[in-house]
Design goal:
This protein is mainly beta and about 425 residues long. A hairpin with a 5-residue loop joins β18 and β19. The chain is about 5% helix and about 45% strand.
Length: about 425
């Protein structure tokens, strides 16, 4: 399993040979574009204004926001913005912290809004597009012996298995509430107990053929903790309006390649149309090469989906895994859900793919080098109707890479000059 931690590197030589595209913003008005970058060296968040004409970044303030109000949160992992860009959340290993976006685009002081359950270390989070639900996966002790099955009763005094926690969130607010299955141990909502070690999570809400909206959760895992030892899997859950998780009858599915480390669910249907589908992409790292597997959520008997698959909304495998660079750790789609971008942590590169919106099949468009150890991606619009910008945090090199994205083709057509990230070891990115 890829360990998602920063490695502190010396920056003196990097400063001498790299171009610096950073200046201190002095205006009090909020910039049209914003990018936030989490540092795993200094445990803070840098706020940048995005030049919509060039893609260049300018530091908004030198008073960088700490990722935690004290020293109890552990290593910061990722950051997300709510749909209104009024609030932000940072997932740390031991706590979830919330921020208000100030009038100049900088972040307020952090507030701890949730803490990890006893014995747990948070690994990743995902939020719905509407900003009403957040899912956090966490890992328990290294070699638990009591993880007999998924969904077993949770007890904070004895549980040492991995967990899924579902939180209710409200756009514009930093308040979160744990919701979901009630258990006697907490006399209220409880996390969902997993019998496998999770590596990545994705959440999506969609509706088909005029039906009601439904929310599904996808979790990859690389180690089965039960006696079955079915490693490298993709688990699929439905989430009801109360946050209760129900695992699909056919779940978990084989991930199609060993050691899955990333997952991204995509709805390719245009608004108010049903001409696309819901597809799930799983990045994995075998002994030598990385790959991306494609699954389809079956809503009708078509393509790889049988009628029984459609009745159960099971997943069907689409084609064979696509080869990419080593450790495809980060995935991102463009706002139209037509193109998929993948950052490869060991390959030190970024792939652009066109998604067939009807079948989910991927066609490679371009490949660009990144800095050392890319770990996260963020996209931002421009003031040009023909392009947008893609940013990559390079954890091993302490730089931010940028690319111009062709809106029509989806290809990465021109890299921007890399920007040194002085706090060191950038990780999570979020742009709006």
């Amino acid at each position: 399993m890829l360990k998602k931690t920063g490695i502190v590197v010396g920056l003196a030589g990097l400063f001498a040979v790299s171009a610096v595209l950073m200046s201190c913003g002095s205006g009090s008005d909020r910039p049209a574009g914003l990018l936030y970058v989490v540092s795993q060296s200094l445990f803070n968040v840098s706020s940048y204004a995005v030049d919509l004409g060039s893609g260049e970044l300018s530091l908004i303030t030198n008073n960088l926001a700490d990722t935690c109000p004290d020293s109890t949160c552990g290593l910061p992992l990722t950051i997300s913005l709510d749909p209104t860009a009024a609030t932000a959340f940072v997932l740390n290993q031991q706590a979830l912290t919330g921020f208000t976006v100030n009038s100049d685009g900088s972040l307020s002081k952090p507030v701890t809004v949730a803490t990890s359950q006893p014995g747990q270390t948070a690994l990743a989070m995902a939020s719905t597009t509407a900003g009403d639900l957040m899912a956090v996966i966490s890992g328990g002790i290294a070699n638990p012996t009591d993880c007999l099955q998924d969904g077993q009763p949770y007890d904070p005094d004895t549980n040492d298995c991995p967990l899924i926690s579902i939180y209710s969130t409200t756009p514009g607010s930093t308040s979160v509430s744990l919701i979901g299955n009630t258990c006697q141990a907490l006399d209220g909502p409880c996390p969902y107990v997993l019998s496998r070690m999770p590596t990545a999570v994705s959440i999506i809400t969609f509706a088909f053929n005029g039906g009601p909206s439904q929310t599904m959760l996808f979790v990859t895992s690389n180690l089965d903790l039960t006696s079955k030892h079915n490693d490298s899997e993709l688990s699929v859950f439905s989430i009801d309006s109360s946050g209760n998780l129900t695992q699909q009858s056919a779940s978990p599915y084989a991930s199609q390649a060993p050691n899955p480390i990333s997952v991204k669910a995509v709805n390719t249907n245009p608004a108010n149309q049903n001409i696309g589908g819901v597809f799930v992409y799983v990045g994995a790292q075998a002994a030598v090469t990385g790959s991306v597997s494609t699954f389809q959520v079956c809503t009708q008997a078509q393509g790889p989906c049988t009628q029984q698959d459609a009745n159960n909304e099971s997943l069907a495998v689409v084609g064979k895994p696509t080869t990419v660079g080593q450790n495809p750790i980060a995935m991102l789609t463009d706002p139209t859900n037509s193109f998929l971008y993948i950052g490869c942590n060991v390959g030190n590169n970024v792939y652009a793919f066109k998604m067939n919106t009807s079948t989910g099949v991927l066609t490679q468009l371009s490949l660009q080098p990144a800095g050392a150890g890319p770990v996260a991606l963020a996209m931002h619009g421009s003031d040009n109707t023909s392009n947008e910008y893609l940013y990559v945090s390079n954890n091993g090199q302490s730089t931010i890479s940028g690319y111009i994205v062709n809106l029509t083709s989806g290809a990465l057509v021109a890299p921007l000059a890399p920007m040194i990230f002085p706090p060191g070891n950038p990780y999570g990115l979020a742009g709006k």
